[in-house]
Sequence to fold (279 residues):
Amino acid sequence: MLSRIDLQKMKTENRKIAMVTAYDYPSSKTAEAAGVDMILVGDSLGMVVLGYDSTVKVTMDDMVHHGKAVQRGAPDTFVVIDMPFMSYHISLEQTLQNAQLLIQETDGQAVKLEGASEEILQATRRLTEAGIPVVAHLGLTPQSVHVLGGYKVQGKDKEAGGKLLQDAKNLADSGAIALVLECVPEELAAIITAEISIPTIGIGAGVDCDGQVLVYHDILQYGVDRLPKFVKAYADFNSEGKRGLESYIADVREMRFPSADYTFKIKDRKFLPETNKEE
Ligand code: KIV
Fold:
């Protein structure tokens, strides 16, 4: 398993970090087998797995439940667990307790927090001091979608870009081990990547970030109807899965399944129980 030191080294040596989300045993097992560097148990699970319209309904229980399954499927991969909506805003004490729960219950290697307010910087410092690595997240931060006014590209003018750069520096100074940059113009992401010491992981933030992350269900087109502009689809589970299920249904209806290959036989009919019906 990579450590945070390895991730840092990858930035220094300009070797790109490949990260993907996963939410359960089969997705994390496939991600690990494919050789991904890091897995994120994203709260995007609310949308792509649980069918909510945003991430705000995701709970601590959801993250623990899915985080445990991911860990079982990918025991040798660096796993980051998202802290869900409002699990790190009420008080510092509650933030520490929730992060402790996530790490102890799931065996994950780090937690991810969105934003860079004074409260988040303080939480990042305290969690780091307590031995819990923190991955930061700036740009489009989906838990604040209602404050941001929708899923929009962030940092598009000088002032907003300058603030993002300063926020990124503050998070790095507070001890964050990596920074997810979501929906940020690539030129700004390149500046942030060059200016901060920790790896940046982009999602819709261009090729100059130190790594990339995408949502598992988006890359593989698995249960999603629309893809954001920044997603490249690498497989089509929707079509392939539907085709397979349609064949199965037709085979069942036409009694082509189960054929002899998929059926158990008794050695001799004498081993069958007596019935009153004539054979
Ligand atoms: O929840 C998630 O999947 C994320 C990624 C989009 C970075 O936070």
Observations:
- The two ends are 62 Å apart (CA to CA).
- The mean pLDDT is 96.
- Residues 21, 40, 42-44, 82, 137, 180, 182, 203, 213, 215 surround 3-methyl-2-oxobutanoic acid (CB under 6 Å).
